[in-house]
Design a protein that fits this description.
By secondary structure, this protein is an alpha+beta fold. The chain folds into two domains: about 55 residues, no CATH class; about 45 residues. It is about 40% helix and about 15% strand. Strands 2-1-5 form a three-stranded antiparallel β-sheet. Strand 1 and strand 2 form a beta hairpin. The longest helix has 25 residues. Keywords: Membrane, Transmembrane, Transmembrane helix.
């Protein structure tokens, strides 16, 4: 899931600079209001945590992320295989990139729906929020 916000002036979607699993944790860590500079119109506006929207990654972004992870794991497994060449365990490092594909976390729409459903407005303010 990625966090985006629409510019108040040009309506362009911009990526939120920080990440949290929900709005409450975002507000606790980074404050309930923040400023963001739009990439398209280059104007800075102030936004509230409730203005953030969670979206699923697009197919191209998922494929790109998986390829990057697969390449990194493959390089590490080749290095480990060369380092442990004489040992029978060296051939098990070939299976590491294949296992990575199966355990790679899928695009989780449940997290996205949870983030978008719970808003901060109307909640009782706690002392843990930054301003």
């Amino acid at each position: 899931m990625k966090l985006v916000i629409k510019c108040k002036d040009c309506r362009e979607e911009n990526k939120v600079p920080n990440y949290a699993r929900d709005r409450v944790n975002y507000a606790k860590k980074f404050g309930d209001k923040f400023e963001l500079n739009c990439k398209k119109c280059n104007k800075t506006n102030e936004y509230h945590v409730d203005d953030i929207r969670a979206e699923n990654y697009r197919l191209g972004e998922i494929i790109t992320n998986r390829i990057i992870v697969l390449v990194i794991v493959s390089v590490i497994s080749i290095i480990l295989m060369i380092a442990f060449w004489g040992s029978p365990i060296s051939w098990s490092f070939i299976l590491l990139p294949i296992a990575t594909l199966f355990f790679f976390k899928n695009n989780d729409s449940k997290k996205q729906l949870n983030f978008n459903k719970h808003k901060m407005k109307g909640r009782i303010p706690t002392s843990g929020l930054k301003r």
